Amino acid sequence: MKTLLLLLIGAIPILQAEEKRALLIVVGEPGNPLYQDEFKRQAKAWQDLAAKAKMDTNTVGLGNEPADGDRPDLEKAITALPKAGGDLWLVWIGHGTFDGRSAKFNLRGPDIEATSIAELLKPFQRRLIVLNLFSASGPFIEPLAGKNRVIVSANRGGERNYSRLGEKLADSLVSADADLDLDGSLSLLEAVLHASAATKAFYDDAQRVVSEHAVIEDNGDGRATGTDKFKGLRAEGPAPDGALAREIHFLGDSADPLSPEARDERTKLEAEIEALRQRKKALKEDDYYAELETLMRRMAKLYGK
Length: 305
Description:
With 305 residues, this protein is an alpha/beta fold. It has 10 helices and 12 strands.
């Protein structure tokens, strides 16, 4: 039975040649020369990675500040992006604010609200990967979450202190140590978990209280899962996130060969498989593997196997 399941899993193709991907880097108001240098370093790291990945790349927030600030250029840049196609990555580097009601990303000039960003992203049909690498980014999760989207925020809830996740994530994307399952391919989930661990290590080494806790949302329910809830590449809880982020790779192919309808069915199957895994201890071994085989056959059928 176990051998048959391994054959079924191996029959499911995960990666295929993909459509052209794109990256938009948004650099916010530094507010301090030290932050300015760091934000530029992060932006350069993402630009270099994008060049290796042969992605279309645009950056907002560097260079001379426009007379009316960066918000008009940012809105134009997002609006001009193709609404369909390969993955669209949006990397936000800087500071944020949250007053208990309104969450904002700090730009040079007028800031932009999380709700305004959500409106700008509404027309997009392509898969979105939104990396909120800034302070007070927890409240951005709910308005930006949706189907076929991965939202990562450096902070949860009302955490407002400067975030160091952004300092670590670009480095994690090229780190061999971040390949947690040792399969020779680095997923977005692995990179985020590695960067989160590196961020915690910074606070531990400095003997400081950890003031930021990264979260990830990729099942569309608007409720994020903390990176500290993951054991390996699986999260605990009734509706865990992480399945979509496991399929996405910045360097290398990450296209999804399935139709939107098939993706919906796959999401349901993944939820059933996870629910079955949670019940494993309560089932007889043969019953568990019989149910798992049925689910894996349905999954393989989605890929024409």
